[in-house]
Sequence to fold (479 residues):
Amino acid sequence: MNTAIRRAWIASACIFVLLLGTLTYVQFFDSKDLQANAWNSRTLYESYGSQRGSIVVDGVEVAVSVESNDGYAFQRTYPQADIYAGLTGYFSSIYGATGLESAMDEQLSGNSDAQFYDRIAQMFTGNTAAGASVELTIDGELQQLSYNLLQGHKGSIVALNPQTGEILAMVSSPSYDPNVLASHNAELVIAEYAALNEDPARPLYNRAIAGDTYAPASTFKIIDAVAALESGEYTADSVIPNPQNLSLPNTDVTLPNYLGGNCTARSEATIEWAFAQSCNTPFAQIAMKVGQEQIAQTAQNFGYGQDLSIPLTVSQSVFPTNMEDSQLALASIGQYDVKTTPLQVAMTSAAIANEGVQMKPNLIRSVKSHNLSSLYDFSAEQLRRSTSAEVAHQVRDWMVNSVDQGIAAGAGVDGVSVGGKTGTAETGTDTVNSWFTGFAPANDPQVAIAVVYEDVDTTTGSQLSTSASQQIFEAVLNQ
Fold:
């Protein structure tokens, strides 16, 4: 009898320990995964049952929760929808969250570790749970201007402070209205999402950091110039052959020189002059001489192949490997399989402007709980040293000359030293993607930018990208 009782007691104890262990695992180790599960409708209703924190720019809410009269307690709304859609993303009862709504979800929903005591206090006081507000580094006027400059075009504009990494503007065009995806009308949301997803212009992609990355075209010559100086093979005084057509090794292909500037005027050129006129053949020769390992390492030093969160996830920029010299020649002018984001191009110019130091880009200025206590405040952070100050100064001077004496003149601002580089990326059609990247003022940089217009003709595209850049520079410098 005692044996039977003992066995029953042991079995009961084992079951109790098993249940306690399972409960402990679910409560403490698996809770976040369960909360994030798309099938967990309880979490979804809880999310809409509490007041989600606002996303704020210059003191103005660009994403805010308002009381709702339907089955949910709150409705997520976006007062300046199209201008900020690429940043805020959407908070949808059907498709989940994207953009900052996803990246900052724990803070916005009030579930971050830093808000633990706030949650406890709300339980005891009986107050409605509320999330933290997230203030962005974005300059509202600059964001509006950038949005306006891209209207009617596909493309992107990124502006950041090269000395701190604060992102001042980030726009992707075409945009979309996140309000329709945050609607509580499921039928409407499904129909609108399908239409947006099938749109060939891809409005749901944030072109500044993701989606189909771009060929950087001649903006990549900034990397070439740095690699040339760092290799020891070239100096500021080096003279390079400047043929109008360069035969590529082991092929029947010739690389033509750029026809939009004055490349035909000289049979030989310094790096400074070739850079200002954006001549292709000197830079192809530089790349083949210093080798792909040197070019690849320099690209990596500026961020290519590196993961980055701002806290939005940024697609990696890519410089190809295992190339023949003919392919390297094309890669050196930002074609072949070189792919990048506008943010990466802006970061490259920012590092040159900031004496070779690349600061970590960031969109978040501060996070404040519902009672206004600070949970996070921005602090500038060095990401890496991309090149020496000496090399950065030389390339900075070449970029200034490109605006003063070269084909980037359209981005110039009266009375201000502006550095810049244009780019024209072939797309395999009769149109191009037109680039400009640069910084101002050169001696005390306040802003570095990247501008790209997709699917434009060569002449119009160059005018669009340089004119837009000039207007952004003027807006920042006139503040």
About this structure: The longest strand covers residues 447-456. The chain has a mean pLDDT of 90. The chain is about 40% helix and 20% strand. The longest helix spans residues 2-29.
